[in-house]
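Need tokens for this chain, all 299 residues.
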Amino acid sequence: MKLLASPLLSLLVLASCSAAWPKEFHQLEGLILRRQDSDQSSSSSKSASASKSASSSSDASSTDSSSTDSSKSTVTDSASASGSQASASDSAAATTGASGSKETASASKTDKSSSKPPKTTEFDPRLPPGGVQMVTPAATEGSQYYKVGDHVTFKWNYTSLSVTPSAIDIMASCKENNQMYTIAMNQSVDGTGAITWDTGNYQKTASIPLIVETYTLVIYDAAQDATATAKAGYLGSFNQFQFGMYTPQAYTPLNEFTCATCNGALSEAERHALGFMLIMATITTLSFTWFAGGFGVFS
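Here are the structure tokens for all 299 residues:
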């Protein structure tokens, strides 16, 4: 019973104390409660303003995103348009470049095909090269001299020729002035070659005229040089025939002609030689007579 009486006594004391609290404590309690309400309203207002700001920011962000999306779409459209134009120009350039490269390739192929050297046939090096044998004038006719202004004819045959050249050049070489006079260029090749040289017409139009001198007839393949090394079966350079050229002098009557090297009298050397011969003949005759007389030949 004592244990139950003590708690009951405590509750009665507390109830009496609380009933005796002054009014200020109740106002303070109201203040405290109203303060709590103001905090809740402020927090609610803060949450409302936060929600408004969040909504406004979301609207702004949506507006910005929409504007950004529109600008992006505009940029994308312009970029796609420019890209399509660029691709079109690139494709056109690629087509042009491809066609140009094809043309260049074809042109280069043509150049390469045209620049390829002609095929040559090789023969046994023991075979002799092709040559020329003169027919007119013949070798048995001796030295030949031609007057500048006449028509000079040369004829020849080909020897040991396995490959016929497409054309030949015919020249006249003079060592005195180190000149090559053209008789014919790119002359066609037949079984027997022949050329007639109009020296008079040539002399009228030549920048370097013909001089009185010995010349060498040169015949060689037009596709080669005159000094090219002869190959077996191919025409080599021919330079074995020589002839003389002279220019005629103006006619002079016989009574007006004067020989610069002619003289009726004996020259000094001729007189000395004749005198020496007479002296030697006299000495020989006298010596023989004296020896013969000593041996009694004349007794």
